[in-house]
Amino acid sequence: MKEGKRIFYGWWIVAGCVAITATMVPLVMSLSGKYALAVIDELQISRSQFMLVNTIVQLIGIFLSPIVSKRIASGQMKVLQVVGVIGFCISYFTYSLAQGAVHLYISSIFVGLFYWASTIIPITYMITMWFKEKRGLAMSIAMAGIGLGGTIFSQVITMFLNNYGWRTTYQLMAGIALVCSLPIVLFVFKSSPEEKGLVAFGANVAPANQSEGAIEESKNSSITVKASYSKVFFILAMMGMFLNGLINTGALSNFPAAIQEMHDPATSANIISIYSFVGIFGKLILGWVNDRFGVVASSVFGCGSFLLAFILMLFGDSLGIMYLMAFAFGLGTPIGTVSPPLITAGVFGQKNYPEAYGLVSSVGTIGTALGSVFVASILDASGSYQTAWLFMIVFTALTLFGWVGSYVTSRKYFTGNAELSETVD
Fold first, then answer.
1. DSSP, res 8
2. Which CATH architecture has domain 2-194?
């Protein structure tokens, strides 16, 4: 982690990213449902009305992701993040003022606007710019903050809800997010090594000594993102990203209820805790595999683990099988956050990364918005989760096919190594 005698500044960037992913991101991705019972009871709205709150945030990302990516690439990251963090925390605070579902939805529009401007997209951009070697490890550490923050703040929110009620809890969590995040974006984050007079980590490593991941992700494509729209690799990549979003939310939003149907609440809670905890290390393992062996190997590892989890869910009446499922699912969940930016860099190239990742994020978010609804619809139609898991098995296999196929078919458009310091048009 050191270059020369000092710790490479990029690792401070990674530490800052963990602060963001541990505070702001879980409030949208994994902890929004913690408020459900209290809000539903006081406002007298249905569960589906409340679930629409988070869906709106995700839908905003479909339209906003490409715009944010282009703005970041043009040098506006600092402004976007500072305004985004402040705006997110204020908007999240306004949930506490809601008197009905419509008020929650209005707040969600602004939460979504500021969330996408300040979290995942700029984080993945910075790590891509700061790391040539160890990019997978850096990305996985940054994204591990999601699981870490979710684990910690799940208990904090529960305590706040029990002691202060849901309105005060929204206010307190907005304050915590602001205090933890704003100093980071103001004083720590730099969009590229050039801002510190540095080069990317591993940029000086001789080509013969580069890792497979660095070789794959540091080349430039000979065609623009726009020119790739009609290419096979583009279609395969977007198919993989859409299905990846679908299978992730299809699983994460429905596994708790499905597990509780087969086992008692205490056992269900234990299984969920296991796969959440394993997921932290799963991100690190996937990042290491990517750095050591490349995006094809990391895709096989992640999608293979995810697919195994769905297979084991078919036999979930067995408690032993369920614990195996929790381990496999924890190893596979990083494909939802760690894999997309790594695959984007490998398939579209270093120079095209910002524009391409905006599209990737947008398409993936469509899948994310549909995943939970898709599984729930199959449950309503068939009365069982089994059919849904069979669909998820097929979709996971197609995700892997899309990712590997897009990487293989994109190789003919690639030239030599890209300079990480090159200005992105």
1. -
2. Up-down Bundle (1.20)
